[in-house]
Specification:
The protein has 193 residues and is of the alpha+beta class. The protein has eight helices and five strands, in the order αααββααααββαβ. It has a three-stranded antiparallel β-sheet with strand order 1-2-5. Strands 3-4 form a two-stranded antiparallel ribbon.
Length: 193
């Protein structure tokens, strides 16, 4: 284990040196596997932090070049100190840019009104008529998940890195910053709409 590799993983993940050493040992020195292990452990931290109250934060404004699309996004954290950091501000900017580019309608699946979910399920049930009963449930579940991926910010592939979802980006930020972070709400404005 070289010090350069430890330093590189420390900068990339924000994890502690001891955690990085353990992840590298577990991954037999493989950097990518170690990052994956650290992300999984970060997800566990996120689970513990998710219950914490987020009453501080910022409202970020993004106006797309050409001034035809604009976004206001409220990003919350636990303390005013974190809300003033560059890492938090940059995260808010990236999320506002994502909203401008990807046009989500809701923050998370929990925000989608039940009547809209029911309507989508009704449409999907029409589409799967005649399919074997044992696979219909899985097909409907998959189609609903795909719908959430299209309309829910947290479920969308992140525009700057489509290999991860926006919720993974938030999870990484929680691991690095060490506080619960939540997108409270956003509004997307399009000229003429």
């Amino acid at each position: 284990m070289s010090n350069d590799l430890l330093k590189e993983l420390r900068e990339a993940t924000g994890a502690g040196i001891l955690e990085i050493k353990q992840a590298l040992e577990e991954a037999s020195g493989d950097k990518e596997k170690a990052v994956e292990i650290l992300r999984k452990k970060g997800g566990l931290k996120l689970g513990k932090k998710a219950d914490r109250v987020t009453k501080e934060g910022i409202v970020e404004a993004y106006i797309h070049p050409g001034a035809k699309v604009g976004v206001l996004l409220e990003l919350n954290c636990e303390t005013d100190f974190v809300a003033r950091t560059d890492a938090f501000k940059n995260l808010a900017k990236d999320l506002a840019l994502h909203v401008a580019a990807a046009s989500p309608l809701y923050v998370s699946p929990a925000d989608v009104p039940q009547e809209i979910q029911d309507k989508e399920k009704e449409i999907y049930q029409e589409q799967v008529k005649g399919k074997p009963a044992d696979v219909v449930g899985k097909i409907l579940e998959g189609k609903l998940a795909k719908y959430f991926e299209e309309v829910c910010l947290l479920e969308q592939p992140y525009v700057k890195n489509p290999d991860i979802k926006v919720k993974d980006l938030l999870g990484e930020a929680v691991s690095k910053i060490g506080e619960n972070i939540q997108v409270r709400r956003f509004s997307r404005f399009v000229l003429g709409n």
